[in-house]
């Protein structure tokens, strides 16, 4: 019998967040000011941001790329973690959201070290590889359109250096991946199978955490 270690009561969750977070002021401001946004849930949860900062500092990261930027929470967290002499590459397709992200980058003082590619990532990532970016990144975060996760992952394996990190968000899809149904969106079945593939992929060390909506952390061998 497997012991249930995932449940958090509301008081315990509040306590966890009080004890777990050292959220930088700029990230707290961004999170609070956009909490009522119509798709605020697209942003990393604060505990996920704290984990991202911890991991990037742990591996001494200086070059970071993300697929899915939204309003800038993850890109700002990465820039804070890596310091002024680092580079952040942000890939997104939504001009509306990234205009706001660029405003927050300026407020955070990271606009000079952050480059936005406003295009489909399945177009941007191969172009980066063609320009010699293979193995040039310490970490890649994937937090975008779910049906393309397997494609983004294969590009990540080329872009991220050995002993670098690949992080994927929303791997639980609100719990639906556990019991996919015919009535669910196609992305549910895709991630259900993709989670299994990642678990068994010997090119990486694998860890999946019940943080946010499910966060998978991969260490490239």
TrEMBL record:
Pfam families from the UniProt entry? Methyltransf_3
| Keyword list, A-Z | Methyltransferase, S-adenosyl-L-methionine, Transferase
* Name by which UniProt lists this protein: Class I SAM-dependent methyltransferase
* PROSITE patterns per record: SAM_OMT_I
- List the top taxonomic levels of the source: Bacteria, Pseudomonadati, Pseudomonadota, Betaproteobacteria, Neisseriales
Alphabetical GO biological process terms: methylation
Q: Which is one GO molecular function term here?
A: O-methyltransferase activity
The record, for InterPro entries, names:
Cation-dep_OMT (IPR050362), SAM-dependent_MTases_sf (IPR029063), SAM_O-MeTrfase (IPR002935)
Species, as recorded: Chitinibacter fontanus
The record, for Gene3D superfamilies, names:
Vaccinia Virus protein VP39
């Amino acid at each position: 019998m497997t012991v249930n270690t995932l449940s958090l009561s509301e008081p315990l969750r509040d306590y966890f967040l009080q004890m777990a977070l050292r959220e930088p002021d700029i990230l707290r401001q961004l999170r609070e000011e956009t909490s009522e946004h119509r798709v605020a849930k697209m942003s990393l949860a604060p505990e996920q941001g704290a984990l991202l900062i911890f991991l990037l500092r742990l591996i001494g990261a200086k070059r970071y790329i993300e697929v899915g930027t939204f309003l800038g929470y993850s890109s700002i967290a990465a820039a804070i973690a890596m310091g002024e002499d680092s580079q952040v590459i942000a890939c997104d397709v939504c001009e509306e959201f990234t205009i706001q992200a660029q405003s927050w980058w300026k407020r955070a003082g990271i606009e000079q070290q952050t480059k936005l590619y406003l295009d489909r990532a399945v177009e941007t990532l191969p172009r980066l590889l063609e320009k010699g970016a293979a193995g040039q990144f310490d970490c890649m975060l994937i937090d975008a359109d779910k049906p393309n996760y397997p494609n983004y992952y294969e590009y990540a394996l080329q872009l991220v250096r050995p002993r670098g990190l690949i992080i994927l968000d929303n791997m639980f899809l609100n719990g639906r991946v556990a019991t996919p149904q015919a009535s669910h969106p196609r992305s549910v079945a895709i991630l259900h199978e993709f989670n299994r593939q990642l678990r068994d992929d010997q090119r990486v060390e694998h860890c999946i955490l019940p943080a946010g909506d499910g966060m998978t952390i991969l260490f490239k061998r």
